[in-house]
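seq:
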Amino acid sequence: MMSVALPLTALIAFTGYTVSVMLQAEQSLIDFGLSLMSRPDTAQVVVDLYLLATLAGVWMVKDARARGMSVWSVVPYLLLTAVFVSIGPLLYLVVRGVREQRKSAEATQAS
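struct:
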């Protein structure tokens, strides 16, 4: 359970915060992104975040392949990453951890 606890806590907290902010926002997500990109100082932060998101996406694809999963199984996480950056990788870590726990429990029961 420990391998899931930290990413699950972060996922719940950040998703809740994101939903709260989006419900209170006075502009659309696209308008907000465009306004961030209109100034060099905030554009640098956005570019930095998306570089990190790209690295996380590459890691998710490689990790899924290493675990014998289809690349297509990672597409939902990549889409979430493209829109919300942190939510995609956090969800991937939670689902991966739950799968590992399930496999471990099945292996224990089989022996």
